[in-house]
Amino acid sequence: MADQEADLRADQAEERPDDTPPAPQPRDPEQASRALAAVQELLRRHDLALEALTRPRQGEVEVRPELVEPPDERQHLDDLRARLDELHPADVAFVLEALPFEQRMVVWDLVKAARDGEILLEVSESVRESLIRSMDREELVDAVETLDAADIAELAPDLPTDVVEEVRRGLTQEEREQLRASMSFPEGSVGELMDFEAITVQRGCTLDMVLRDLRRLEELPDHTDQVYVVDERGELVGALPLDRLLINQPDVLVEDVMRRDLLTLQPLEEASEAAHAFERYDLVSAPVVDPRNRVIGRVTVAEVLDLIREEGESEMLAKAGLRDEEDLFAGVWASAKNRWLWLALNLCTAFFASRVISAFDGTIERVVALATLMPIVAGIAGNSGNQTMTLIIRSIALGQVTMSNARRLLLKELAIAALNGLVWGGVAGLVAWLLYRDTPYGVLLGMTMTLAMVLNLLVGALIALAVPMVLERFGRDPAIGSSVLLTFSTDSMGFLIFLGLATLLFR
Predict the structure, then answer these.
(1) Taking Cα atoms as reference points, which of 109, 95, 105, 107 lies closest to residue 37?
(2) 3: phi > 0 → left, psi -120 to 50 → alpha, else beta; which?
(3) What is the mean pLDDT of residues 311-335?
(4) φ and ψ at 299, to 5 degrees?
């Protein structure tokens, strides 16, 4: 039976014409992780082959490695090169970011030169800098020349000036103008995100004319879900979604089926505001217009997703006290320096908190149990404040917190803190009384714990709400510094409140 099935498959293969296109290969969402594992295994075999090549066997004369033809090593590198050729540029970037510097350079040298530009766009900034440093001037020029103007502008800050200038001289006049425009927009603006691949059509055209124009293109720009409709003066009047272009009759005029309720962006608008609009209205693309309402480019969902990812990573790093994106395999000295600022601030705040404790040495000497309980007061308030701060920072990023609703939000968070303080402060006070009920201070310790936790949770809620809003008010990132100030406040004030109440109650 198995032989019959094999013969049947063979017959079907013979009957299949040679020009039959290959079946589409679905993209594996875990492809990057699988590729990384495969690349690491090939690199391991490559290292073993090199080690065996340079280690003479017992009783043999040592031979210089450069005089020996290393077939195993060459085979592993060929396999690695073939594996890399199969990967999407984003997956290659993922692999490069996850490798130590020496292995990263081996893999980078095996990537086809024609793909260098695409991959440089995908890798993180810190890894990109290490790759650019390993390339000579001619390699950089060849890599960047394959990109369009918007992508060149994205790489330009990391490239040597002479490379950018040589690439610019090789562009057409239109591409030079696009490059100049892209590099002139401020960081974090819509202009920085946009590309110049917007397709415009005249409103007086028929759908058949539009289709003929589109067929003349080699391919549609990525994420093209609509073409933009302009009038005789070149001003934007609407958009023609591709589904309307396809389902309506060819002789229908564009202006009769176009959408007029179109969201437009200005190049100097905040990119984060554009990202909110894409999320709110489920956009795939949006036109960017100049002050005369003429289309100068577009923003697509791909750029918006990259922006959201970068902002999320930046916020995480800022909350952890890291100043910029750090290469996972950067040098020890560079990585250590990147963490010094926040460690120094934490050290200062810790010393301040210790001075607060030392001011109550007499009280602690009389009731030693206070020393074992006071970290609980500071820790609970810090955790509660972090919950509030995370919510507030997220709401600020989404534009939901304004001066008009800030007061109501403050009252709500203070009420939540008071309720949590009474509930969990009561639990903590009960546990403290149970632990020290055999001492003369058992009841007073329980009361002190409850009152201190209520007050410190209120302090934590106030700081967690006020600090991000004040930073936002002054144009700073709400995530930067907020956690340090919150920890400083809940620790210092927690110790002050707890020991201060104890001093008053344990007279």
Answers:
(1) 95
(2) alpha
(3) 70
(4) -120, 135
Please report where in the chains the tokens 């009759």 appear, as a residue. Answer: 249
pLDDT tens digit string along 212-240? 999 999 899 999 999 999 999 999 999 99
Number of alpha carbons in the 13 Å side-chain half-sphere of residue 27: 7
The string of pLDDT tens digits covering residues 398-433 is 778 877 888 888 899 999 999 999 999 999 999 999
End-to-end CA distance of the chain: 96
Position 318 pLDDT exceeds 80: no
Q: Are 380 and 457 a contacting pair, CB within 8 Å?
A: yes
Element housing 94 (H / E): helix 89-97
Instruction: Say yes or no to pLDDT of 263 above 50.
Output: yes
Q: DSSP string of 417-450?
A: HHHHHHHHHHHHHHHHHHHTTTSTTHHHHHHHHH
Strands 200-202, 285-289: pairing kind: unpaired
User: Residue 252: CA atoms inside 13 Å, Cβ hemisphere, count?
Assistant: 13
Torsion angles phi and psi, residue 265, rounded to 5 = -120, 150
Q: Are 453 and 425 in contact (CB under 8 A)?
A: yes
- The answer to whether the CB of 155 falls within 8 A of the CB of 144 is yes
User: Whole-angstrom Cα distance, residue 250 to residue 166?
Assistant: 46
Q: What is the pTM of this model?
A: 0.70
Paired with 241 in beta bridges are 226
State yes or no: pLDDT of 94 exceeds 70: yes
- pLDDT value of position 301: 95
**Is 67:125 a contact under the CB 8 Å cutoff?**
no
**The pLDDT value given to residue 236:** 96
Q: How many CB atoms lie within 10 A of CB 355?
A: 11
Closest CA to 397 of 326, 338, 477, 278: 477
DSSP 8-class letter at 270:
B
Q: How many Å is the maximal CA-CA distance in the chain?
A: 100
Quote the CA–CA distance of 313 and 325 in Å, as a whole number: 8
- For residues 456 and 460, give the distance between their C-alpha atoms in angstroms, rounded to a whole number: 6
